[in-house]
Amino acid sequence: MLRRATRGLPLVPSVGLLLVFLAGPILYCFYAAFTDMALTGSGATGNEFVGFDNFAKAFSEPAFANAVFLTLLFTLFSAVLGQNILGMIIAFSMRRTNKIVRAVVGSIVIGAWVLPEIVAAYMWTAVLGDEGTLNRVLEFLRIPGQDWLYSNPILAVSIANVWRGTAFSMLVYSAALSEIPSEIEEAAEVDGATGWWRVWHVTLPMIRRSIMTNLMLITLQTLAVFGLIYAMVGEGGASGKAQTLPIYMYEQAFKFSQIGYGTAVALILLLVGAIFSLIYMRLLNPGKEAT
User: Fold this and answer.
1) Mean pLDDT confidence for 188-211
2) pLDDT digits (tens, 9 = 90+) for 45-98
3) 66-100 burial, b for 16+ CB within 10 Å, e for fewer?
4) Which listed site, 98, 130, 201, 253, has its alpha carbon 20 to 30 Å from 67?
């Protein structure tokens, strides 16, 4: 018994740090979400327990419903469809190219990934703004342009997020594809499996765990994107057309000083991420329940 206890002693500092810097803020958020905590007014001098009032208020607000819808739309377009599919296509394409092409393409894609979020945001603002590069190209082609950040801000920030985050998916799929034994694909070719049939029935099933893991990670990362959207369209663009949950949460907590309500929205965002994680984990282990 004593020997077991001494074995765990080296872990005590790590557990202590986790409790202080991870569990502590989370528990404080749970506390704040059930109070009327505010930066100004009566909530700033003394917090009162309000039960589920903050959550009831969120689900009755049209702006909150709009933020949930835009968050799911942004996640679907920029993560599930954009980064995931584009990263997979690049990884498949790089398998058939030589080392020089792989090095050049890999450097360009990863270069976008390592750029600070704020730099990527300003770069895409210069491309998609009213006087941006895209409109200059359209003008040269005699096609009418528009201010993409004003007319369709959710599309603009989705494109920027795809451009910046595709490298992660590409690296995950490149690593997964390199682990497939060449004998299996050669045997499939001998049996007449070529092209899309081989990819769909042989390659993709073999990297299914990597696909689900990648989807889970990029989904959670995209749900929390704040700086890129805020730098490109402020607090959600015209009429809140790009006001995702992180932007809505920031607006309520720090612009309108409702810390308790903003924290409740943060917990709902955490719940959305947990639901996505459970779905991906269920898809990752489809036979676990049956066994």
Assistant:
1) 83
2) 778 889 999 999 999 999 999 999 999 999 999 999 999 999 999 998 888 788
3) bbbebbbebbebbbbebbbebbbebbeebeeeeee
4) 130
* DSSP-assigned letters across all residues of 75-129: HIIIIIIIIHHHHHHHHHHHHTS-HHHHHHHHHHHHHHHHS-HHHHHHHHHHHHS
Tokens of 186: 């050669």
**CA dist., res. 120 & res. 234, Å (int):** 15
Q: How far apart are CA 20 and CA 26, in angstroms?
A: 10
Rg of the chain, C-alpha, whole Å: 24
What's the pTM value of the predicted model, to 2 decimals?
0.85
H/E segment holding residue 250: helix 245-250
pLDDT score of 134 more than 60 = yes
String of b and e for 116-126 (b: at least 16 CB within 10 Å)? ebeebbebbbe
Please tell me the predicted confidence (pLDDT) of residue 94: 86
173 in Cβ contact with 207 (< 8 Å):
yes
The dihedral through the CA atoms of 212, 217, 223, 227 has a sign that is negative
Mean pLDDT of the chain: 87
User: How large is the greatest C-alpha to C-alpha distance in the chain, in angstroms?
Assistant: 81
